[in-house]
Design a protein that fits this description.
By secondary structure, the chain is an all-alpha fold. Helices cover about 60% and strands about 0% of the residues.
Length: about 100
């Protein structure tokens, strides 16, 4: 409903900007600078928001569930019987293991 009311106004602004861009593009220079500043602020804000939400809604619950289940996929728990966390690997290169190229 509101879109129907605003449509002529939006089309008028769009037509005016199009005519200015075609006939006198230098007039739109200051407007472009304002839009660029606004875009930088919006981009920075959304980046922090999305990353924060991802961390707190996905990564943190996964970590809590893994701790509750006592999972340690990286074998990082302290073990008094080990002197190092180094994991031995096969000494050969990828030519002897074509199914493991890396």
């Amino acid at each position: 409903m509101a879109w129907q009311v605003a449509r002529p106004w939006i089309l008028g602004v769009a037509a005016t900007l199009l005519l200015l861009a075609i006939l006198r593009p230098q007039v739109l220079g200051p407007l472009e600078k304002v839009f660029a500043r606004v875009a930088r602020v919006v981009t920075a804000t959304l980046t922090y928001l999305v990353l924060s939400l991802t961390f707190f809604l996905i990564i943190t619950p996964m970590g809590l569930v893994m701790r509750l289940l006592r999972r340690d996929p990286l074998a990082m728990k302290a073990a008094p019987d080990r002197s190092t966390f180094w994991v031995e690997v096969e000494p050969d290169g990828p030519t002897t293991r074509p199914h493991k190229p890396y």
